Description:
Blueprint: H1 3-33, H2 46-72, E1 90-95, E2 100-105, E3 113-116, E4 119-124, H3 129-134, E5 142-147, E6 150-159
Parallel strand pairs: 2-4
Antiparallel strand pairs: 1-2, 1-6, 3-4, 5-6
Helix pairs in contact: 1-2
Amino acid sequence: MNKQTVHQLILDKLRSDLDIAERAAQTAYEAATHEENIAENKYDTLGLEASYLAAGQARRVEEIRQSLALCQNLILRAYDDTRGIEVGALLGLEDERGREQWLFLAPDAAGLKVDVVGQPVTVISPRSPLGKGLLGKFEGDEVEILVAGTRQQFAVTEVL
């Protein structure tokens, strides 16, 4: 798996998500400001509801813009086995049941998923319990995290 390819796919997905969110925000704004949505009485809340939606969509656009900017400014470095896992690492993990997954440790955009030749790669950030636990670990290390009162253990199988 190629780290630069994964990074580019993440940027492409963020750009696509931003475009969709901007169009949704514009549509919500137009609905909120349309003359047909002006309240005729105190029980007519369509305009108010549309304005809440528009505000939420605008916040989502800003979140995606921030994620995109942070990921665009990410400098990809080769894995250094003296420093361990850092932001920008592409890594393989295996859980206790032997299930494998690929993760990309990014500065933001956690939860985003991209597909690399049929292999899903999930973006995590250092703010997540798993991301925090992975920082500084090495290939072959085990990571244990506590999620909702349940301990989960993973082995780092590969780091790029």
